[in-house]
What we know:
There is one protein chain. By secondary structure, this protein is α+β, with helices and mostly antiparallel strands. It has helices spanning 19-30, 46-56, 76-97, 100-106, 117-120, 142-159, 173-178, 204-207, 212-215, and strands at 68-73, 123-130, 163-164, 185-194. The protein has a domain at 47-197: 3-Layer(aba) Sandwich (NADH Oxidase).
Amino acid sequence: MENPPFIPLEPGYHPGVPPEQASREFYDMIKSRRSIRMFSDQPVSREAIEGIVRVATTAPSGANKQPWRFVAVSDPALKHEIRLGAEKEERELYASRASDEWLADLAPLGTDDNKEYLDIAPWLIVVFRLTSADDGSKVYYSEESIGLATGFLLTAAHFAGLATLTHTPSPMKFLGELLGRPSNERPYMLIPVGYPAKDCTVPVHAISRMPLEEVLIFDRGEQS
């Protein structure tokens, strides 16, 4: 097999800046990101949406197959259809699908089946995971790849001064049907994007983060 062509690696984003300093600066920016449910109807340009999705497409993916698709919805009537579909699934979730433990874990977040923000946020980005390429060829590690791309998208939106929510109505099949997507595209996440409402608040529970020493282990950790 002939060797594939390679090109020189371009310098990183902060050439010459120590990684310790660069990571602190990035943390100071990203630590204020929050999922919100109180959006303003202030317009957001199509160019801004294109920009944050462009960032998402730079994520790594299995064999560089890029198994993702992003459907950006701004049409009020279509957003309302999505809201109705999401609320239908959420009513069933809260009434019968979710276990008592799940409902107890959700309680501190104050969530319910009212999804008014799906009408109010200027954009809804529906992230789809490809189970195969459009030509029918195989994709690899699609779950891992789409998760990485979605994380990039959320980070880019925050960097751009916009707020988001990771909404996963379950099941989400209705999104593919409403948006006319082909069978190789599976709904992965519904992300409202916009500015926070002036009176926006977030649950105290959502602010807390586990301390680093609980989530970071070096080597095998301390042996007892």
